Amino acid sequence: MVDLSILSQTIPYTSVAVSQVLFALIVLVAGFILVKIVVSMFNNGLKKTKLPELIIEFLSRFLTALLYVIVILAFIGALGFAVGSMMISLSAVLGLILGFGMQDSLSNISAGVWIASLRPIDKDEYVEVNGSSGTVSAVGILATELLTPDNKFVTIPNKLVWGSPIVNYTRMPTRRVDVNVGVGYNSDLNKAIQVAMDLMKGHTMVLSDPEPLVVTTELADSSVNFQLRSWVNTEDLWVTKRELTKGIFEAFKREGVEIPYPQVDVHMKKE
Fold first, then answer.
1. Could you give phi then psi for residue 230, rounded to 5 degrees?
2. Angle at which helices 237-255 and 189-201 pack, to 10 degrees?
3. Alpha-carbon distances of 180 from 117, 228, 271, rounded to whole Å
4. Does the domain made of 120-168 have the CATH classification 2.30.30.60?
5. How many whole angstroms separate alpha carbon 86 and alpha carbon 73?
6. What percent of the chain has pLDDT over 90?
7. Burial letters 38-71, b for 16+ CB under 10 A, else e
8. Does CATH place domain 174-255 in 3.30.70.100?
9. pTM, to two decimals
């Protein structure tokens, strides 16, 4: 004979457990959806202000992480666990983990706040920091993200960014283009300099103020080296450098100015 009293006690408990799990899952899904809505509203509100995009993204990531923690705690509570007592029971483990990792994490968070506030770098700027170069993709809570010209994704901890020299290649509106070239010792230097000046002044992207300049830099073994210096808008830098490098070679060839190969004179003594 089956003891119906046992079944009558088990079935209610089972139904309660299933309904509790379903409710917890609803809380979790609804929480994730609500996080996306709140973060989206938060971003839209900040975009109406004059805050830089980098700060908006940093605050958005920080809020997202905080809200996800709240949702997960609500999910655990909906399952019937005492969140407070669970946190206390896990405090020893968390303390051990935080002892090893929180110091670096807090350093990265504080460095991220300084980067987002003082903006030595900004989104879409091309920078060199801690030995890596690339376009700034984002400054997260813990790390700064760069995208290299050959499409490599680089993540640098914020404390290394803040604690390292930063070279910002695109912050200033204008940049100087330097093109190095050498001519033979038998060449007419005045003519070579004039050809180089005419090339720079005739280029549409070269600015007239400051004026282009040719500077003699070295009396090398096989050539007299000088440098073409011209100012351009920052976005025109690389295009102008390529065109001037190609242009000076073609202009010297056309005008008969020698660009020498490295050479060594060997004198043989006859005994």
1. -140, 150
2. 140
3. 39, 6, 43
4. yes
5. 10
6. 45
7. ebeebeeebeeeeeeebbbbbbbbbebeebeeeb
8. yes
9. 0.63
Question: In the numeric block, which tokens belong to residue 49?
Answer: 């202000």
Q: Which tokens is 70 given?
A: 């709240």
End-to-end distance of the chain based on CA atoms, in angstroms?
126
Tens-place pLDDT, residues 69-119: 788 877 777 777 665 655 555 555 555 544 555 567 778 888 888 888 888
E strand spans, the chain:
126-129, 132-139, 143-147, 153-157, 166-168, 174-183, 213-219, 224-233
Q: What single letter denotes the amino acid at residue 259?
A: I
Q: Per DSSP, what are the bridge partners of residue 135?
A: 126, 147
Say if CB 167 and CB 120 are below 8 A apart: no
Encoded tokens for 18: 């299933």
What is the CA 132 to chain-centroid distance, rounded?
9
Task: Please report, as a single letter, which amino acid is at residue 153.
Answer: F
Which 8-state DSSP code applies to residue 171? Answer: S
Crossing angle of the two packed helices 53-78 and 91-118, in degrees rounded to 10: 160
**Cα–Cα dist 185/124, whole Å:** 45
